[in-house]
Write a structure and sequence with these properties.
Helix content is 0%, strand content 47%. By secondary structure, it is an all-beta fold.
């Protein structure tokens, strides 16, 4: 089992919802800024959402703003991505990522993160 483990992916119809989770038993979760990224076939990995280490600051890509919400539960070492109003264009493998950071900062670049999960597939049918 890796440092980060995602779950919650699946097949859903357009307009539906999914909630992704990411947990760790190896990292001191509250010391890490966290992010969600996704990668569709033939495309580069792209930023979806990020949260600072304490969760007081979040950011979301324009393409998912008002539909997706990132949240974290530091007491239970868990990161979430609530995805509503899903579209076929959201179909991708979704990855969570971690970067050691104690400042109130969010990170949006793939190369900003040190640890990655194995990914969970999200498929949205039309």
């Amino acid at each position: 089992q890796g440092r980060l483990v995602e779950s919650g992916g699946g097949l859903v119809q357009a307009g539906g919802s999914l909630r992704l989770s990411c947990t760790t038993s190896e990292l001191t979760f509250s010391n890490y800024a966290m992010g969600w990224f996704r990668q569709a076939p033939g495309k580069e990995r792209e930023f979806v959402a990020a949260a600072s280490s304490r969760g007081s600051l979040t950011s979301h890509a324009d393409s998912v703003k008002d539909r997706f919400t990132i949240a974290r539960d530091n007491a239970n070492n868990a990161l979430f991505l609530q995805m509503d109003s899903l579209k076929p264009g959201d179909t991708a493998v979704y990855y969570c990522a971690a970067r050691w950071a104690l400042t109130t900062t969010t990170y949006t670049g793939v190369h900003d993160y040190n640890y990655w999960g194995q990914g969970t597939q999200v498929t949205v049918s039309s």
